[in-house]
Amino acid sequence: MKFKILYIFVIALILFSLIVPKPVFAILGTGLFDYFEAATKGIEKLAGPFTGKIIKLFLYYVIGLVLLHTSAAFLEMTMDPSFLQIQGNAVVEYGWRFTVNIASMFLILFLIFIAFTIILKINTPQAKKSLVRLVLVAILINFSLLFVGIMVDVSNIFYNTLFTGNADLPSRVIESLGASGWDILTSMITWIGALALSLIIPFVGPFAQYALALGMVGIYLPNLIVWISQIVCFFMVSGMFFFYTILFAARVFIIQLLAMISPLALLAYIFPKTEKYFKMWFKWLVEWIFLGIILFFFLALGLAATNALMPRSGPVPLPMVGWGDIGGYIVYYFFLITYLGIAVMVSKKTAPTFANQFIAMAKGGAGIVVTRGLKPLGKDIRRKLSGWSAKQEKAKKEGKHVAFGKLGGAVSTTVKWGHKAAGTTPELSAERDATEESANLEREFGSNVDAARDYYGAWYGRLRKHEKSGFALYAAKMKGDKGLATLSDAELKEAAEITADIAPEKLKDIVKYRQDLIDESPTIKKAMVSKAFKKDPKTGEYKLKMEKDENGEETGDYEDRDIQTMVDLGYSEADAIREAAFKKATDALKNEDVEKLGAKTLGNKHFQEHVARFKGWGFVRKLGEEKGMDYVSKIQEKAESIGLEEISRTNSSLLRAAYSPGGSIFMREWKEKGKEYKDKKDINKLIKKSRKVVSWQKGVDTLRTGKAAEEWTDKEPKPAKPPPSPPGGPKKPPSTLQGVLDAAKEERERKEKEDWGGGRTTIKPKGPEDWREEERKPTPKEAKAEDKRFFKRKTTAQKKEGWGREAEDKPLTKEERKKLDQILKEKEEGEEKKE
Amino acid sequence: MLEEYNKEKLWKIYQKLPEELKDALFSEDTTDNIYNICERNEIEEAPEVTKIVALILLGVLPLESLQETLRGELKLKTERARKVSQEINRFIFYPVKRGLDSLYGLGSPGPAPKVDLGTVPIPEEEPGEPKKPAPPRKDTYRESLDI
User: Fold this and answer.
1) How far apart are CA A486 and CA A329, in angstroms?
2) Chain B residues within an 8 Å CB radius of A662
3) Residue A799 contacts B where some CB pair is shorter than 8 Å
């Protein structure tokens, strides 16, 4: 009975589910919507990015066209000769009158001054000359504005020659360059509109997208090339037009200013000491007046030529047809871009004195057009493609799925070829982006890391990867641990991991100040020793590289020296990798980085160990100077805990430092296992003992194989053998006069050596002509010359030891020469007496 | 002797030393020189000599008192103390003479002073013939009398 109820219940449930109405499309064929929906979703992934780029291209095109027309209008305005007015300009005349009054006042003062100099007969000829000039200036000062006006008019004669017929040159260029642009803009709007429309229609959408993706390379590419070239030209031409506009405008104001101060400039002509200001004023005036001619000449020449090169027919905005026109356009745009670059370069070189400041300002204005328009477009494309390609390569290496399959691989390969042609790789490109970001921050904020951090503020989280990495590199470079402290721990870890991913070579510049990151992040640890690994082709796993001998056979040692060192010190492979990462971070620290270290790194036991083992005394001393000698005591304790014998093999300078004068005061004597090393001799014995084995590597071998005990003993070294007696027995006293002279000379040299404390080295014989080799008595002249050379050499030798005079090898002073002559005289007399 | 001096105060003094003296204090060459001098003169208390040299380099002990200090601390004879101090002066202190001079406020020798022509004294006239009186100068303001 029970089962019957159950069965009935189940059957009722099934019937009910069959009976309940489902939403279905009753119209014929509408079930296909699902298929196309799925197809659309699938194709969107591929075609979506292309469509996005086209829309971006369209936006850049619009901006470029607008900038082009604006810049042309400004340039035409400033180019007009009537823009520069000297006489008849109210501002100039008012300024000029003001300076004339001041100059007149100074004229009176100068006249009185000259009168007094003549009366008091102080430098009378110069005063008379100045008087003549004063009279001349007093006459000319009232005509200074007229003279400047005449100079401007003279330049306008040349200017008008060029200007006639070319007044609307910028507009004509815009017309030829940009007119077709409006057509292209229209066609682009049509394309985008058509594409958008096709997406709406259910059946057509996926096919349209498919056609777009498929035909991108073969069909639309020539038009895309032309459009991109045009965008580049728009930005470059408008940038150049802005550059010229600023220069022309600056020219007007500078000439007007120079006209206003012309009376003061003439006043400066009176006295010789101030004449240079008059000359400077005159030079600037001439340069700025004639600048306009040079600039306009280049502009007219170049733009007129490009007009001639412009292809007759405009770019046909139809697919496939554009392939036919592309050659002419490439030549046209190439010429235009090259010419514009040369024109700007030449203009800069011929620019007047402080035109460079204006050029720098013009760069800020006109450059914004290029840097904010053109560069981001190019950079963006390059960065995206590089980043994508680098990811593809990484995924391939790790055996992971490559996004977009063959198409993605083809793009990645193309990008790699492009980088290869440019002499770089996608990985290097990514690293360069991070480095560039760091350099930009440094340029903008200097060492003010806090300001840089505040600049990003809450937007830091939205920064792109290379920007985060760049910020971390910048902060580390500027202020080390303090700079990195502007980031939270999570942000710092993220930035370090990004750097490990895109710029592993730069990772140590961050990690050296925050070595605690090595333990916190396996990614960072692995990246620090990434070069030590290679992929096993058979298993696909990553293993440590082994060293190979000449025959290509593995020697059993790791290729990475740091890892090998750690293994030799007794660490397991896993620990050796970690310790090697710490060692690399510590090795990256230089003496000047010590002041930027923070408590987290200083307190890290791995850091202390590596400092004690591998960092020379210079570094430890710097640590002591920056962080206090208590820190050096910590390093001493660490060294003692490791074992002085081990330390002596890699860092003997640390051991010896404790016995230097400074060490005797600020450090303590080394001690180990109850044994104290009282002085330098004891520690030298220890160092010698540890180095009894020929090399560090052999010493390590003996450690590993246990052969050390046999080789090392505590026996005292054997005493040195006495020097062998000379052949023929000990020296007899000299019997001949020559022998006496030689013995006396030897005794003299020995005494001098003692007196000078070894400063004098034996005089090296020069050659066969040297009188010592010939064993004849030197002539007084030869002896004098030799002694002079000796004294000079001694002076140089003394300087090396810190004696005598300053660094430059100066000749002997009079007193020294007198002393030398006296000594030579005494020697000669002494020798004569002996004879 | 060192017990008289506070390490922290000495450290503060060290931090203000010129770089030359800081290098000399911790230099291996300085240490080697001290030990060589001690070996040559058969002195066993090289660590003591090292400390004395350190105190002089820090400016705590005067340079002139080296001989006396060696005599007093190491109980050396006058002649030996003189010889050792001479060698220490030559090998250790002379190379850092400039730094020590600035430390003791003696001033470094510096370059030869430039001769200012304005301060060159007018050379004395050699005794010889008496000077003839200069002819009277024409008075440019005097007008001629047209009589």
Assistant:
1) 51
2) 14, 22, 25-26, 54, 57
3) no
User: What number is the ipTM of this complex?
Assistant: 0.72
Distance in angstroms (rounded) separating the CA atoms of residues A518 and A520: 6
Percent of chain A past pLDDT 70, that is, above it, reads 63
Tokens of A727: 């052949």
pTM of the model: 0.47
Specify which residues A675 forms β-bridges with.
A672
Note whether A811 contacts B: Cβ–Cβ < 8 A.
Answer: no
At A370, which amino acid appears? V
Give how far A294 is from chain B: nearest CA, Å: 51
- Asked whether the beta carbons of A559 and A545 are under 8 A apart, the reply is yes
Helix (H) or strand (E) segment spanning residue A821: helix A814-834
Is the Cβ of A755 closer than 8 Å to some Cβ of chain B? no
Find residues 61-120 of chain B whose CB sits inside 8 Å of chain A.
Answer: 87, 90-91, 94-97, 111
Which of A53, A52, A57 is CA-nearest to residue A232? A57
Specify the range with the lowest mean pLDDT, choosing from A40-54, A680-694, B4-18, B75-89.
Answer: A40-54
Residue closest to A220 by CA, chosen among A306, A131, A315: A315
CB B54 to CB A664 under 8 A? Answer: yes
Can you say how many angstroms the Cα of residue B66 is from the centroid of all Cα atoms in its chain? 16
Exposure class string for B5-36: b at 16+ Cβ within 10 A, else e? beeeebbeebeebeebbbbbbbbeebbebbbe
- Which CA distances in Å does A755 have to A751, A760, A819? 6, 9, 17
pLDDT one-digit tens code per residue, A763-817: 444 444 443 444 456 677 777 776 666 555 445 555 554 444 444 445 667 777 7
Contact A665 B54 (CB under 8 A): yes
